[in-house]
Amino acid sequence: MGRPWFTALARAFSSAMTVLGAGCVLGLSLLTWNTWFAARPGIVLKPETHYDFIIVGAGTAGCVLAARLSEDPARSVLLLESGPEFGWLASVPLAAPLLQNTVSDWAFRTESQHASQLGLKNHSSAWPRGRGLGGSGQLNYMVHFPGVPSDFDRWEKEGAHGWSYETIRPIMERLTCERPHDLVPRNSSPRASYRILMTGDRLCLPQRTKKCVPKIRLAGGEPTSETLTSAFVDAGKELGGDSSKDQEWAEKGFRRSRSSIWKGRRWSTLESHLRPALGRDNLHVMLNTHVGRVVFSADLGPGTRRAEGVFLTSGAIVLARHEVIICAGAVGSPQLLLLSGLGPKQYLKQFEWIPFVADLPVGHNLHDHLNMPLYVSFSKPNLSLTLSKLRSIRQLGRYLFYKEGLLASTAVSAAAIWPSNMGILLFAMGTPEESVLGNIANYMPETFHGLFPLAKNSSQEGAVLLSSCLQPHSRGTVTLQDSNPLSVPLIDPRYLSDPKDVKCMAQAFKLAARVTKTRAFKRLGAKMHLPEFKHCGKPNLKDDAYLACAIRTSAITGYHPAGTCRMGSGRQSVLTPELLVRGVTGLRVVDSSVFPTPVSGTPNSVLIAVAERTANRLIIDYPTVKYDYFY
Ligand SMILES: Cc1cc2nc3c(=O)[nH]c(=O)nc-3n(C[C@H](O)[C@H](O)[C@H](O)COP(=O)(O)OP(=O)(O)OC[C@H]3O[C@@H](n4cnc5c(N)ncnc54)[C@H](O)[C@@H]3O)c2cc1C
Ligand SMILES: *[C@@H]1O[C@H](CO)[C@@H](O)[C@H](O)[C@H]1NC(C)=O
Ligand SMILES: *[C@@H]1O[C@H](CO)[C@@H](O)[C@H](O)[C@H]1NC(C)=O
Ligand SMILES: *[C@@H]1O[C@H](CO)[C@@H](O)[C@H](O)[C@H]1NC(C)=O
User: Fold this and answer.
1) What are the distances in angstroms from CA 2 to CA 6, 122, 388, 398, 492?
2) What band does 178 get if pLDDT is binned at 50, 70 and 90?
């Protein structure tokens, strides 16, 4: 770096980049890279008439199931995805926000909210969802923070039998290979093998792979700054937390975050599961193929209608010998079920083109996290990510040649969970950019400036503490606009409609404020900037009315919508605990819509475990060779 010509060149380049921003230039030129250059084994343009399994939606869950079910060459699988492939930009961790509002994003907007989103345009939240191979797993922020044990015990209590923490834990540990010492001996009994299959241990059987190969690969993330991350962890200790316990599952702790990033690239289930399976003769993948509805057999009496296959909006029908598995996500799956005549009977009556099939609470129970930002500035240098650091040609070079540096991180460098049900993410970005973050949050300009008063200074050191209520009580709906499968559905999360959630959010926000007052943060010259909104009055942490107003004005989606086809028992559930749609046969839903209640963290890794376990079950339920092995 000492060479003068290089430095001069770098300076010239750097200022040119400043005009557009390095990310945007890259974005425009590389978004379509794959479409032109990448070889695409396994992608077909025309389907066969029959497959054993048809999977709708190639998102986080769809990629897992397609890969697992096609492991055995005797089983044929079709994976249908509405969108195209993502471009190269999707693999760059820090570039994730730039994909929103592009062709790779469904870019949903919620209905106008009454109790929240009051500082957003039209009081409507922007809901990005991945559209293309890899789904939201190609668009998300990659944070791995898979909840606490009580989340799963709550599922079990709510009627999702067999999903307790005890069942989920070994699967998660296998997926991340965090307990390789538990490997099952080679000659274990058939009964043990069955148990292994159901808990997912099989992934790491010693005869298959000598070493456990993690499916969920995790990077500690190159912390934007080690100093800031440790200050956050120390702040937790000052507040009385114990993060020395089990990293992942501690109920109370401030810790370094981990992200599904591998060698500087996004590590979604497209990479971990689907990519290695592409090219198998028995796995066909169709892109740009939208499923319009599920095809059922003639009505043979109550409970005997069988899902025979799917209608594509192109007009074609494809049939499934075993099952149709819907993995279209928390918005797409309820939409598809409603269009197929599965939903509340009274509600479906208004759509004369939809033949009624079964009375189920589809589209209800929508839940999501909200994130409330609190900006803190630092007077000490070199602590956080800033636009001026990001724009340097050096960062671009480091990423392109070595896959490291700021672009290889997510900027979410630490996370906290605190009783009861409070969470904080440390977003180590000193200079939130209105044209990027303001835009994707759909903030009105005055909301953005009320939150981030120093945003104009592109070298300002700082961070955003995102506080959250991890078990919100408010529930919303996904419904249809009309019976056209290509129409966008109506999304009404009804955020903060339950007053308990406002209280819980306010508590979490106060915890974030306490963090900025700790000695660990004071050492960095931390200064908290409480949100200033005219209609909320003078900022004052002790004033509940101010807090409620600020939260209702500026808390935004945590991007974790789920629950719209909930599993459980009884009439309030759409699915059995095996994830089969009630009232029909041959139809399953596997994606984030199955979660009965929220995960107190980030859902992606939990969903991978749910999909893996379901794949294990399907492999047992539909054996391709006859063995007496399991009996
Ligand atoms: C911006 C953002 C940030 C996030 N950050 C994190 C994070 O840091 N950590 C974390 O754990 N989670 C995060 N999440 C959430 C996580 O990514 C999702 O919960 C997860 O990817 C959901 O997976 P899924 O399989 O349910 O659905 P998706 O991955 O959304 O997949 C659904 C797929 O189905 C396709 N589809 C829909 N309808 C049809 C149809 N009719 N026919 C054919 N195909 C169809 C869609 O195009 C899509 O590809 C984030 C999400 C977003 C959007
Ligand atoms: C607000 O809603 C109106 C009507 O629904 C729509 O035309 C307009 O584009 C929306 N504005 C924004 C900023 O989203
Ligand atoms: C901040 O980082 C720059 C570049 O890495 C370095 O030159 C400088 O000495 C650092 N300053 C402090 C106070 O650590
Ligand atoms: C911008 O931020 C830097 C770094 O914190 C600081 O030194 C400088 O004074 C700030 N500029 C303005 C105009 O506030």
Assistant:
1) 8, 53, 21, 16, 57
2) confident
Nearest residue to 516 via CA among 525, 507, 503, 504? 525
Tell me if 381 CB under 6 Å of ligand 3: yes
- Phi/psi at 418 (nearest 5 deg)? -145, 140
423-478 pLDDT per residue, tens? 999 999 999 999 999 999 999 999 999 999 998 999 999 999 999 999 999 999 99
DSSP state of 479: E
Strand-pairing partners, residue 294, are 310
The structure's pTM equals 0.90
Residue by residue, DSSP assigns 289-346 as --EEEEEE----STT--BEEEEEETTS-EEEEEEEEEE--HHHHHHHHHHHTTEE-HH
**Pair 43, 289: CB distance under 8 Å:** no
Could you tell me which residues are annotated as the binding site for FAD? 140-143, 291
| Closest protein CA for atom 8 of ligand 2 | 122
Phi, psi at residue 165, to the nearest 5°? -55, -40
Residue whose CB lies within 8 A of the most ligand 3 atoms, among 382, 384, 385, for a mutation test: 382
- Identify whether the C-beta of residue 438 lies closer than 8 Å to the C-beta of residue 456: no
